[in-house]
């Protein structure tokens, strides 16, 4: 069963690369559980999850303690779900109490990792450290969902694009086939305030231009997803955006039913019919 799941994961990656080469990108619905759920709650979530068709990639980023148990359930149910870690240390190993290396995350079942989430940036993680984290993750073959976003003060001052361009510099050396970007305006995270779909599309189009500048020959491999109070009620609006390739979902991802609704909104974007 473990071998079968690994083969399926490999096939998904090959499909992603083929679509990227053709200028198409598979939508991505990523759940960031943050510091929520026990092993029992995680198991109940996976048993209840109906992923629907295969036109949208599904990632779940649980607390690291849940990775091995969730991997076993995903394999048993043959769910098309990729496990994503919430953070990674920039060093290979050593005297770093409480930290987790990229190799450990892979061993626990993760295939991807969040880097640069605003709640990590608030802990003082700057560009140099985030670059080192991303490079360490890439060295171990973990796909990176790199989070960027402006604060409310930066937004009010009209500095959004300058801030995002600067933040993107940290991943300029990451292979494009291992990189996705999440735009998460800090003022919208966990506040119930979400960027309007037109505003989000405008910013995503700007990020797409920056990605093309950094990766002129491989920019089609990089997905750009929106994160910031995404809910079942507004997911379809974001899915309509030409440059919005998916969503990074916080609170609405903690319950299978609401996360499914968001997945299905982006499946319509990625389906054969549109």
UniProtKB/TrEMBL annotation:
* GO MF assignments: triose-phosphate isomerase activity
Enumerate the Gene Ontology biological process terms: gluconeogenesis; glyceraldehyde-3-phosphate biosynthetic process; glycerol catabolic process; glycolytic process
**Which reactions fall under this protein's catalytic activity?**
D-glyceraldehyde 3-phosphate = dihydroxyacetone phosphate
Identify the metabolic or biological route this protein is part of. Answer: Carbohydrate biosynthesis; gluconeogenesis; Carbohydrate degradation; glycolysis; D-glyceraldehyde 3-phosphate from glycerone phosphate: step 1/1
Which InterPro entries does this UniProt record tie to the protein? Aldolase_TIM, TIM_sf, TrioseP_Isoase_bac/euk, Triosephosphate_isomerase, Triosephosphate_isomerase_AS
UniProt-listed Enzyme Commission number(s): 5.3.1.1
Keyword annotations from UniProtKB, A to Z: Cytoplasm, Gluconeogenesis, Glycolysis, Isomerase, Phosphoprotein
Q: Which Pfam families match?
A: TIM
Give the EC class as a word: isomerase
Q: What is its main location?
A: cytoplasm
* Subcellular location as annotated: Cytoplasm
The record, for NCBIfam families, names: tim
Q: Which family does it belong to?
A: Belongs to the triosephosphate isomerase family.
What is its biological role?
Answer: Involved in the gluconeogenesis. Catalyzes stereospecifically the conversion of dihydroxyacetone phosphate (DHAP) to D-glyceraldehyde-3-phosphate (G3P).
Q: What is this protein called?
A: Triosephosphate isomerase
Species per Swiss-Prot/TrEMBL record = Alkalicoccus urumqiensis
Q: What is the lineage of its organism?
A: Bacteria, Bacillati, Bacillota, Bacilli, Bacillales
């Amino acid at each position: 069963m473990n071998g079968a799941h690994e083969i399926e994961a490999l096939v998904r990656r090959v499909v992603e690369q083929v679509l990227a080469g053709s200028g198409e990108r598979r939508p991505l619905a990523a759940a960031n559980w943050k510091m929520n759920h026990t092993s029992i709650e995680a198991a109940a979530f996976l048993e209840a999850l109906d992923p629907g068709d295969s036109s949208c990639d599904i990632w779940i980023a649980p607390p690291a303690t849940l990775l091995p148990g969730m991997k076993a359930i995903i394999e048993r149910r043959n769910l098309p779900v990729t496990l994503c870690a919430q953070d990674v240390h920039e060093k290979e190993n050593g005297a770093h109490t409480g930290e987790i290396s990229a190799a450990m995350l892979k061993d626990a079942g993760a295939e991807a990792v969040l880097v640069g989430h605003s709640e990590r940036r608030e802990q003082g993680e700057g560009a140099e450290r985030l670059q080192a984290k991303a490079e360490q993750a890439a060295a171990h073959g973990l796909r990176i969902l790199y989070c960027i976003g402006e604060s409310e003060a930066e937004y009010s001052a009209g500095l959004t694009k300058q801030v995002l361009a600067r933040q993107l510099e940290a991943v300029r050396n990451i292979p494009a086939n291992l990189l996705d970007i999440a735009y998460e305006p800090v003022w919208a995270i966990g506040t119930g305030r979400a960027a309007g779909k037109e505003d989000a599309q405008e910013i995503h189009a700007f990020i797409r231009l920056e990605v093309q500048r950094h990766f002129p020959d491989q920019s089609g491999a990089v997905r750009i997803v929106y994160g910031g109070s995404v809910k079942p009620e507004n997911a379809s609006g974001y899915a309509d955006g030409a440059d919005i390739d998916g969503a990074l979902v916080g609170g609405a991802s903690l319950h299978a039913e609401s996360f499914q609704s968001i997945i299905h909104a982006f499946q319509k974007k990625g389906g054969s019919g549109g």
